[in-house]
Amino acid sequence: MNRNVKKVVGLCLGTAALALAPAAWGASSAALAAPVPAANSANSATPGEGGAWPVVLRPAVKVAHASQAGMLATTWAGPRAVAVGAHGVVLLSDDQGKHWRQAASVPLDATLTGVSFVDDKEGWAVGQAGVVLHSRDGGERWEVQRSTPDQDRPLFAVHFFDRANGVAVGLWSLVLTTSDGGQHWTSRQLEAPAGAKRADLNLFGLFSGPGNALYAAAEKGYVLHSADKGQSWHYLATGYAGSFWTGAALPDGALLVGGLRGALYRSADAGQSWTRIDTGSTASITGLVRTGGERGVLAVGQDGLTLRSVDDGATFQASYRHDRLPLNAVLPNAGFAPPLMSARGPVPAEVQ
């Protein structure tokens, strides 16, 4: 894996989580020995530190302590909350995040970094080894639609507009689109950004706007915009030189993106110009969502950072968890005290 990307994932999961051997996770030798057929390619999973490609894909193991696995992304599947993360763990909650249980069946134990549902049944998750997983039953059971065991080119985020049309993005400007629910994926070649020789930015996050608008949070201060469900893209320069990991489009048309070292930028004109918002924090921002309340926005980050806004992201108030637990994602449209995804699984928000 690219060294910078490994650093990002390591920050979110914790170094120990990345290096954790399957045996330490609690897998039985029988479960680990059983490979699972994958669609479109041979089997694979994320190699350990110093590992080689390709590697063997193994099913995610059901364990009693699954809710302590590092979680990297979360969304709603109808009234159900779904979270994905380390070791191929998928967690489900049917009580607004108060209690979590492990999904019944996940066909691989690679780290999952993005998840998207279009209703209470149909959803997709993406992650290491370029995998795309699909669920037809609200996240209980999953099947492999895509994997690339011979390429160290992970997918970081996924967004589906409906049951047919979706986009996945990842390492080195990898952009994939589908119009048949993930049965087939088309690679979209990006033009190089201004002044660059090639398109090789890492695309870390996806967030949607009105209609078919879709945005990708990227390296080197770029936000990419598509108006045609991911088929073509153009670059929005923010003036920042670092990486953005997350973003949100607000009802008033404003765009927010956050990332490395506490960088938080806002645009009120569809990305033509950007203003940096001073949060008073240098903790990297990993999750950014609307709360569901009027003008409410919530961001989370490393070092237990929480940023709350009640004015559509114009200003934010920072606070920190007492345990400084690194936070990776936040459930959208769940109020100002939603479930938060951390390096130690889902945790409740601390209201201060």
Automatic annotation (TrEMBL):
<dbReference type="GO" id="GO:0009523">
    <property type="term" value="C:photosystem II"/>
</dbReference>
<dbReference type="GO" id="GO:0016787">
    <property type="term" value="F:hydrolase activity"/>
</dbReference>
<dbReference type="GO" id="GO:0015979">
    <property type="term" value="P:photosynthesis"/>
</dbReference>
<feature type="signal peptide">
    <location>
        <begin position="1"/>
        <end position="33"/>
    </location>
</feature>
<keyword id="KW-0602">Photosynthesis</keyword>
<keyword id="KW-0378">Hydrolase</keyword>
<dbReference type="InterPro" id="IPR015943">
    <property type="entry name" value="WD40/YVTN_repeat-like_dom_sf"/>
</dbReference>
<keyword id="KW-0732">Signal</keyword>
<dbReference type="InterPro" id="IPR028203">
    <property type="entry name" value="PSII_CF48-like_dom"/>
</dbReference>
<dbReference type="Pfam" id="PF14870">
    <property type="entry name" value="PSII_BNR"/>
</dbReference>
<feature type="domain" description="Photosynthesis system II assembly factor Ycf48/Hcf136-like">
    <location>
        <begin position="154"/>
        <end position="291"/>
    </location>
</feature>
<feature type="domain" description="Photosynthesis system II assembly factor Ycf48/Hcf136-like">
    <location>
        <begin position="104"/>
        <end position="148"/>
    </location>
</feature>
<keyword id="KW-0604">Photosystem II</keyword>
<protein>
    <submittedName>
        <fullName>Glycosyl hydrolase</fullName>
    </submittedName>
</protein>
